[in-house]
Amino acid sequence: MQASISSATSAPRSRGPKNTAQSDAEGRVELDPRYAQGLKELQLYSHAILLYWMDKARRDLIEQVPAYLGHPRGTFALRSPVRPNPISVGVVEVVRIEGGTLVVRKVDCVDGTPLVDIKPYFASTDSIPSATRA
Amino acid sequence: MQASISSATSAPRSRGPKNTAQSDAEGRVELDPRYAQGLKELQLYSHAILLYWMDKARRDLIEQVPAYLGHPRGTFALRSPVRPNPISVGVVEVVRIEGGTLVVRKVDCVDGTPLVDIKPYFASTDSIPSATRA
To answer: Residue A77 needs a FRET pair 20 to 30 A away by CA distance; which of A124, A132, B61, B70 works?
Structure first.
């Protein structure tokens, strides 16, 4: 499944900030030619959702102790790549489409991470600016 | 993979609005007991992201012609469940956790749709209120 679309490539982020919203690195999502037409009209949208398959992550932890937290929290209450189905969700800016390549900004993933889906971002349903954490 | 977490159940929406942001139906996401601890502390968050596996959807269309559009658009520029990896992403309100059940509001899926992941929603990176479509 994870190889069926392609891999995302992005600028190295060795010294980059971790928060995607603060990273202005351009990234290139290179699709297998047979999926290139799937990008048609995605440039109508300012933002897209990328779904990655975190193929390096272990999948057996139901609770985890993040260093910043110091106590166990449920895996489904964390954004850690370690989860039963290691799919990561990230919002990126759509910069342009070049054939079968989607050029994006604010990408936050390791080079070569397999991509499983690309979707247009809908502010009407995807954006909840009032969402909180206690 | 799609069976590894559980299935989401929600109120029937035979007459409900299609837009998730307008649906106040409560839905119950019932996890397999072995994953129940994964919900620990998710109630700290007001919203969560659900990833569904749209198991009824065909996976072979790279372009589609939505009825409202009348011309072909790339699958990755649409939110249709028909896509190579038929994963749907939806934001829901976290209402409460009851053991291995996550009670949510504004859920928009068909009863029994397999769930592949649950994540806390981070307004800082997931919410782009200014996102547009041309």
So the answer is: A124
- pLDDT 10s digits, A34-68: 999 999 999 999 999 999 999 999 999 999 999 99
Q: Are the C-beta atoms of residues B92 and B27 closer than 8 Å to each other?
A: yes
Contact B121 A134 (CB under 8 A): no
Q: How far apart are CA A95 and CA A104, in angstroms?
A: 5
Contacts of B57 (CB under 8 A, 6+ apart): B80, B81, B82, B83, B86
Are A89 and A118 spatial neighbours (Cβ–Cβ below 8 Å)? no
Could you report the predicted ipTM of this complex, rounded to two decimals? 0.85
CA distance A84 to A71: 20
Residue with tokens 């939806």: B90
The pair of structure tokens assigned to A133 is 């954490």
Best of B52, B78, B126, B130 to substitute, by most chain A Cβ atoms within 10 angstroms, is B126
The structure's pTM equals: 0.86
